[in-house]
Amino acid sequence: xxxxxxxxxxxxxxxxxxxxxxxLILYGRRRVGKTALIREFxxxxxxxxxxxxxxxxxxxxxxLSQSIWLCDHEDGAWPIYPSFxxxxxxxxxxxxxxxxxxxxxxxxxxxxxxxxxxxxxxxAIDLYYQLQGNLTxxxxxxxxxxxxxxxxxxxxxxxxxRTVQLKxxxxxxxxxxxxxxxxxxxxxxIVYGATGGIPKYxxxxxxxxxxxxxxxxxxxxxxGYLYEEPSNLLKQELREPAIYHAMTRAMxxxxxxxxxxxxxxxxxxxxxxxxxxxLQELGIVQKKSPVPATGSKxxxxxxxxxMFKFWYLVVPGQNNLIQRGFSDRAYTNAVxxxxxxxxxxxxxxxxxxMWKEYDNLPVQFTEIGAWWGSNRTKKQxxxxxxxxxxxxxxxxxxxxxxSKPITxxxxxxxxxxxxxxxxxxxxxxxxxxxxxxxxxxxxxxxxGVQLIRFSEMIQ
Length: 459
Prior knowledge:
Blueprint: H1 6-17, E1 22-27, H2 34-42, E2 47-51, H3 57-70, H4 84-95, E3 100-105, H5 107-113, H6 117-127, E4 135-141, H7 144-151, E5 164-167, H8 185-195, H9 199-202, H10 211-218, H11 229-237, H12 241-252, H13 258-265, H14 269-281, E6 285-288, E7 300-303, H15 306-314, H16 319-323, H17 327-356, E8 367-375, E9 380-389, E10 393-400, H18 408-418, E11 425-432, H19 438-447, E12 449-453, H20 454-457
Parallel strand pairs: 1-4, 1-5, 2-3, 3-4, 10-11, 11-12
Antiparallel strand pairs: 6-7, 8-9, 9-10
Helix pairs in contact: 3-4, 4-6, 8-15, 8-17, 10-17, 15-17
């Protein structure tokens, strides 16, 4: 079942309806739904759909020849073109007569099997495709660094040939309900936190089972689809997966400063930096600074891929139990970490909500994220869950994922901490999983603080 992606389908449709040659670069992490998106788009349309494989140039040329043949034939023996140049020329001949979509999926595999293919494709674009208005070419890949540097980068033969680029990201929380009909909002929040909004992972969850059963099936069982997923992805993308595994686990455990990572891993910052850069390229790790950005050097490194973060928090420590089939016991042991983790997930849900309600908010912010800094009066570090600012005004937010009512003290603390940041205009929101005390509601009216419950966010 295909759900969502209306904006992305609209971009693809706009390319298709164009009267000139279009070259769209589509990329994103594995399992994010790139191929599913393309297949939904090309459904019932004339298309050459080729998927690169990790094999030889001859094998890829054979597969491309077959894909070209299947555009106009249902079966039969296909002619194998003598070269990629001949294959790309044949595509030009086909689209000279009528509108055509050409998809080169997993393009990095093709390019690695035959490095000259990008130059040959560039030649075909310049000599044939750009002169025709009937062709929409889609280059798709999961290797984000390859797509950004070897396809779109200045040194690439294909530089300047793209007309559209689209980096496909995970679903936000408010897109998750489209996958389910009966799941409760709290359960959907846990699904979002455990899967990071990746469609392939969301589809692993059975809404006819409890969250406990689903997590046991997927994460706490040695046969679960997600049991070894982070390890498998690291092995696919990286040459030294063991080092990246140790780094990611350290960050997920709270070692987010460079000095803390160096101490935890026994590595110098100069040795560590290339590995961190690679994890950032893959979208697994993000370098963060306090918002608003004021030139602060207090940056940290966080696991931004929520599925990775969830997995590293709950699975490795329970591995002995999982391997021996005690999935239910492993889940029970992981519950405290899960509850703590959901507090950070709720912060992301609140950010998703603020983007969803962007036009209705008092500040049309250009930056949004967490803030942390020194309180010189108290001689301690303070944090604010969310600051959304346009540079002059800001919305300061506190996010509480807990069952007991929010008290007035939380409002007062938020306002007090906000005074550590210079702003011309200030607005306040407190988000709560459950509810607010009577004293809190009275204080919110008096202080001008907006109170929003989780149940109100999903209406």
